Amino acid sequence: xxxxxxxxxxxxxxxxxxxxxxxxxxxxxxxxxxxxxxxxxxxxxxxxxxxxxxxxxxxxxxxxxxxxxxxxxxxxxxxxxxxxxxxxxxxxxxxxxxxxxxxxxxxxxxxxxxxxxxxxxxxxxxxxxxxxxxxxxxxxxxxxxxxxxxxxxxxxxxxxxxxxxxxxxxxxxxxxxxxxxxxxxxxxxxxxxxxxxxxxxxxxxxxxxxxxxxxxxxxxxxxxxxxxxxxxxxxxxxxxxxxxxxxxxxxxxxxxxxxxxxxxxxxxxxxxxxxxxxxxxxxxxxxxxxx
Length: 291
What we know:
Layout: H1 3-9, E1 20-25, E2 30-35, H2 44-61, E3 67-69, E4 73-82, E5 96-97, H3 105-110, E6 117-126, H4 131-153, E7 160-161, H5 170-175, H6 178-186, E8 191-198, E9 201-204, H7 211-230, E10 238-242, E11 246-253, E12 256-263, H8 268-287
Helix pairs in contact: 6-8
């Protein structure tokens, strides 16, 4: 069994975006997995192969492997250092026995009881989805996983634990992917604020917003633009507003709306390209809600 075998299982699923999500400990114990679009269920061996590859990369180069791209598919990794104690999996029950992995020699010498463990989240998706999409998904899912279970493990008695309850948290983890995507766009030169309105929920960067006011103003603007475009048998896709100092771009993403404000003295072509790139990324992230 190899990484190539794992990718071969997804070979017929090109075009269906996210295929597989796995969370594993540094010792190769599969803690959680979720398959999408009828992807074949992974064996625990896959988790061991992937974590072994990460450890070898770190040993040989001093760097973590965080992205591998193939012709049609890609694998993205994120690793987090945590004090969650992780031990061995029971093949019969699928539960993980709670026990700290071996501490480093330095910690043992110091008599430290605060053992640190590495947890890795890996996703297989289309190569066309890009590295940023994979990184945002793995980091957000991993943070949600650690936040969900770290407090419970502080008082563990060493009995087996089943992480399948994380299924109830996946939608929350996917929802948390939106903010990093907005923050990434907001870091582009000259962009002052970024707002996404989705299902009457507002995500934003920059200064604090009057959320009720934003929803009200956007509804009024949407009604006006819809009336104008419907007369031509079309619907609004992008609207630009401008005054002496600031320009607003309103870009629809399926049923959601992205609003970006920036200074008028910026090169509009460059800013527009940044907005389109972010809109493409957000479209993929918002689509995760349907999984």
